[in-house]
Write a structure and sequence with these properties.
338 residues, ten-stranded mixed sheet, 12 helices, globular
């Protein structure tokens, strides 16, 4: 399948050198907000989410690692005009904390999370979660008092999302929109609960085998987590560290869960360099994106020519149009036949 290359005016270039990346996204996060914010308790956790609009299918936004729900602020209101939308923060992210704990809103935590959104979701998508992060691993004590590394895999993330959606009264089927590592969770959701998913839009999604194949092709040293990412990880909440530590296992879960069901699939891929300076990421990413699109014979693969990794920020109109088109197709397929 030949990908479609789309050209559009650049919305905002948030991808450059690492320091500029962090500063730019910090400003974006500070200025952006989603209407309709609420909180629901799931397994003794306050889960922050936002919802707006009416209709079916419910569009569920799944952010990449380190990114908050505000990352969809340029897409969310436009989709809410045509159907119900839902965005949320996973455990350990802003507002999604244990029910009996106060939110840590310190500036260092906020900055760390924002830098984490950049360094760990752009720099680390195709690197090992094992090599070079032992000093930043999130640990807890087991019943023998020994420290063990926490894990938060796709299985846990998807089941928590399903519980949140159900508890908040959002009935399937869902149209899942996953960015970066959020794409892994969208794929796992669809594979393990096919009756609950009407379609998927992947926005520069991670590939389930990218970490393993990076090491196989380039070696451990080339795929080691960069020093900046390791430094930032030391500042992140335990749940976020556990999620990062589990990304490779989450990819294995996606692979082991079998093929995608026959649902609409659109893959949007960046057309500009993400600015990481990482040869493994730059060289492997197009190959991974093609494989994601090849999962279903009728999928659509769109290359956002003027976008870096955050297509929803650089060219939000492409994400909006992909979702709108899928909503239309899903409704047409489900319309009563006379």
């Amino acid at each position: 399948m030949k990908p479609i290359v789309l050209d559009s005016e650049i919305h905002i270039d948030v991808l450059g050198r690492h320091a500029l990346l962090a500063a730019s996204l910090l400003l974006l996060t500070a200025c952006s907000s989603l209407p309709g914010k609420q909180t629901a308790v799931v397994d003794n956790y306050n889960m922050a989410y936002a919802t707006q609009g009416q209709g079916s299918p419910v569009v569920v936004f799944e952010s990449g690692f380190g990114a908050m729900m505000e990352n969809w602020s340029d897409v969310y209101p436009q989709i809410a005009a045509i159907t119900k939308v839902f965005a949320y923060n996973r455990r350990g992210y802003e507002g999604s904390i244990p029910h009996d704990e106060a939110e840590d809103d310190s500036s260092i935590t906020g900055i760390a999370r924002t830098v984490g959104e950049v360094t760990l979701d752009i720099v680390a998508p195709s690197v090992s979660t094992v090599v070079g992060i032992a000093d930043a691993a999130s640990t807890i004590s087991d019943n023998k008092g020994e420290e063990v590394v926490q894990v938060r895999t796709a299985t846990q993330t998807v089941e928590e999302l399903r519980a949140l959606l159900s508890g908040a009264g959002f009935a399937p089927p869902y149209l899942l929109v996953g960015h970066s590592s959020g794409g892994l969770y969208a794929l796992y959701f669809a594979k393990t609960h096919p009756d609950e998913v009407a379609g998927i839009v992947l926005v520069d999604s991670s590939h389930p085998e990218q970490m393993q194949r990076c090491r196989e092709r380039y070696g451990d040293e080339e795929c080691e987590v960069p020093w900046l990412a390791r430094s930032v990880m030391k500042l992140l909440p335990d749940e976020m560290l556990a999620e990062f530590n589990s990304l490779e296992e989450s990819g294995r879960q996606v692979t082991a869960s079998g093929p995608l069901p026959a649902i609409p699939l659109t893959v949007l891929s960046h057309g500009k360099s993400a600015g990481t300076g990482s040869a493994p990421i730059d060289e492997l990413w197009p190959e991974f994106q093609q494989e994601l699109a090849a999962q279903l014979p009728d999928s659509k693969h769109i290359i956002a020519k003027n976008s870096g990794h955050f297509i929803q920020k650089d060219q939000p109109e492409l994400v909006i149009e992909a979702i709108r088109e899928m909503v239309h197709d899903i409704r047409a397929d489900n319309a009563p036949q006379f």
